[in-house]
Amino acid sequence: MTFRGSIEAVLRGGDPDQVPYAPYDNLVPRGDFERELRNRGMGLCLRRSGIWSESPNVDIERKTKGDLAYTIYRTPKGSVQSAERTHVGRISDGETIEEEWMIKGSDDFAPAIFMVDDAIYHSDYPGFLANIRDVGTDGIVRFDGPVPPYDASETYFSLEDWAQAQHDYPKEFAQLMAALERRLERFMPLVLDAPAEFISMGSLSGIYSPRRYEESVIPFYEKWVPELTARGKLPALHAHNSNLNAFVDLVKRTGVPIVEAFTPPPIGDFSLADARAAWGPDVVIWVNFPETIFWHGRQETYDYTVELLTQDKQSRRLVIGMTEMGSYGITDDESERIFKEGMRAIMDAIEEHGLY
Amino acid sequence: MTILDQINAVLHGEKSDRVPYVPYHNLVPRGEFERELRDRGMGLCVRCNAISEEIDAVSVEQRTDGGLECTIYKTPAGELRTGDRVDLGRIADGGQLRTEWPIQRVEDFEAAIYLIENTRFRTNYDRYRNAVRDMGGDGIVRFEGPLPPYDAPRYDLGYGYFSLEGWTMAKIDYPEQMDKMLDALARRADRIMPLVIDSPAEFISLGEVDGLYSAREYEQHVLPFYEKWRPALESTGKIWAVHAHNLNLSVYHEVVRRTGAPVIEAFTPLPVGDFSLAEAREAWGSDTVIWVNFPETVFWSGREATYDYTVYLIEQDGKSGRLIIGATEMGSYGITDDRSERAFKEGMRAIMNAIDAKGA
Question: Among B45, B72, B104, where does a domain finish?
Answer without folding.
Answer: B104
